[in-house]
From TrEMBL:
It holds the Pfam family DUF2179. The lineage of its organism: Bacteria, Pseudomonadati, Bacteroidota, Flavobacteriia, Flavobacteriales. The chain crosses the membrane at residues 20-39, 59-79, 86-107, 113-132, 152-174. The keyword Cell cycle does not apply. Residues 246-287 form the DUF2179 domain. Keywords: Cell membrane, Membrane, Transmembrane, Transmembrane helix. GO terms for cellular component: plasma membrane. This is Uncharacterized membrane-anchored protein YitT (DUF2179 family). It comes from Olleya aquimaris.
Amino acid sequence: MTLSISESINLKAIFSFKSLLWKLFGVTFAVIAIKGFMIPNHFLDGGLLGISILIHEFYHINVGYPLIILNIPFVILGYKKIGKNFAVHSLLSLLFLGIIISFLPVPTVTNDHFLTAVFGGVFVGLGIGFVIRGGGVIDGLEVLADYTYKEFGFSTSEIIIAINTIVFLIIAFFLGLEKAMYSILTFFTAVKVSDYVVDGFEKMISLSIISPNPEQIKSLIVNDFNKAITVYKGERGNLPGSYGIKHDCDIIVTVVTRLEAHKIKKTIKALDPKAFMYVQNIKEVGGGITSKKSHH
């Protein structure tokens, strides 16, 4: 949800123990990835972290400096487009990053390229994900992509992929094609891990059910699992060997979390073994009575 610029800063939420703990965990994991895996093996990631490590490779300066400086414009953009609380959360995260990356000694964990790509990505993903759960960011490209989507219609994924394609081409030119390919593996590992950390078991999915006993299924979902449903009027039949034989049916749709979907599917199967079910991933949920925790 987009916040108003005129919102008041919620210091209690920003400096809550839980929020600070998420930020500290996140920044620490990111620093372990940077100093323990990526820099010793001359590996890069996508986004501002990849650009910052690339600057470090060229000029041998503390990687925390370009990472913080590059993030500042996106924090300002986030302040204007998302809200004051988001900006303060992000500045606090960057402050933690600057302190921890400067003073936390991290030995080289491995020199194996594959392990560096995979586990470097895992630790980066954990770091970014935990910081987002704490309300901030340490890679501001998401803010730029969200703004560009609203202004020009390009999706967040399209913007991030376009920017990172340029980064990986630069890596390939200066550090070699192999390093670029490993960096792509690191990036995609980090994306998957951070998505899971942010969404976790709370990720919303759409569960659709077609059953010869629709009233029982409706009652089960609404009354037993306390979930809202939407019912579409459809047509079932038209099977191979009996094309043309068809009849009206209800298509029952509900939006639930991963864990809830597993329990609901199992219960429906026990109630009606002939029920047909399918699951669809949902990119975003808003409105209605469906609720989801906000990380900002």
